[in-house]
Request: fold
Amino acid sequence: MLSSSKSKAIAVRPQPPVPPSILAEERFKQERLHDVQLLLKDLFIREEATIKLILESLYDIGAINIINKKFPFPPLNRFLKSIVGIPRPIAKRLLLRWFQQKCPGLLANWLYRKVKF
Reply:
């Protein structure tokens, strides 16, 4: 170990021991949260057609809102709205994959924060 006159020892406060009952409760909460995530994943897999329709509708609304906000010039606005459906199949696949991977965890964590006091 290198010793230096300038180095100071950092005092680490010892953590009080955590009672086993609290550890068991935390483990139980984490298991239940994991169960919620698995149930949400299963729900999203079973209801894939519904999720596709929801995401497609949200894509259409979002695309129109972005075009209206960024391109107020009427001829360009109409043109962009006419071609907004071209990238839809690619966007739909990407949105569905993102939704199935990320949404169960995000939704479970959000629900956990709602029941946490």
